[in-house]
Write a structure and sequence with these properties.
With 267 residues, this protein is mostly helical. It has 11 helices and no strands. The longest helix has 20 residues. The chain is globular, with a radius of gyration of 19 Å. 34% of the residues are buried.
């Protein structure tokens, strides 16, 4: 189904600044708050779930802006956190989003190579030593950015580490990936599926996530559809359709998302 021409998408696009950003700040992966302006990350995340790609003008404008920032031609905004190397983190954020929408972008790949080399070195001894690190690499950014850039041996070790990581994937899901959500119709499952969708972008993840495929198949209804329930409507992952006034629309949205994830896991 095409969600790109719906009311939700049009409302987000109408808020885009002329330079391709949203609001006055770039960084925030939290659920959008109607009382606060959308950040660029919130808008990009929502549009991605609605099916937008680099071929759509709002995404093209945003990516061009982020590439210009990576090249030092402009600044993304004036916001800075004091608790980390903000310039390095900004490059991580920007290169991740550019690579998500344009995987072959040279500028993003040049930046991504830095983190790929770090992970290769970290796992070279066969085991990642988290005690020696100030910042955990298991986050939304690194897990998207590293797809397709690691050696087979490192990817295999890294995925085992991530799937069993007790804090899940930061910004996405806060529990161990290897442990399934206790209740299928829940916000927890919606977040869990987002983590699985990211991991499915790794070529070796498919064989490690067979238990997820089995779990999803077991939770089909009698019509071969999935329903995560009304509480998953968070204006981030769901809804996809403009209205959930009927359960049929909700089931259609949930089924489309889960079907897409299963397709990636089985490919």
């Amino acid at each position: 189904m095409n969600y790109k021409t719906g009311k939700i998408a049009n409302q987000i696009i109408a808020l885009q600044n002329e330079d391709g950003t949203w609001g006055s700040e770039f960084h925030s992966l939290s659920v959008p708050n109607n009382k606060k302006p959308l950040t660029t990350e919130q808008a990009l995340r929502r549009l991605k779930h609605l099916g937008f790609t680099i071929d759509d003008e709002p995404i093209r404008k945003a990516v061009d802006c982020m590439v210009a920032c990576l090249n030092g031609e402009r600044r993304i905004d004036n916001y800075r956190e004091k608790t980390r190397d903000w310039d390095l983190f900004t490059k991580l954020m920007l290169s991740t989003w550019v690579k998500i929408f344009e995987p072959g972008n040279k500028t993003a790949l040049e930046c991504a190579a830095y983190w790929a080399n770090e992970i290769e070195e970290d796992f070279a001894r066969g085991k990642y030593d988290s005690d020696t690190k100030e910042v955990d690499f298991v986050t939304f950014y690194e897990m998207n950015l590293l797809q397709g850039l690691l050696s087979e041996e490192t990817e295999n070790r890294m995925l085992d580490y991530v799937i069993n990581h007790e804090k899940g994937i930061y910004y996405i899901y806060g529990k161990r990936i290897h442990e399934l959500p206790t209740t299928f119709q829940s916000v927890e499952t919606s977040r869990y599926l987002e983590a699985i969708d990211i991991l499915a972008g790794y070529r070796l993840a498919k064989g490690k996530l067979d238990f997820v495929i089995q779990w999803l198949e077991e939770n089909k209804d009698e019509n071969g559809q999935w329903d995560l329930g009304p509480k998953v409507k968070d204006n981030l992952y769901f809804p996809l359709s403009d209205s959930w006034r009927t359960a049929e629309c909700r089931r259609a949205d949930c089924t489309e998302k889960i079907t897409a994830i299963l397709s990636k896991l089985r490919s």
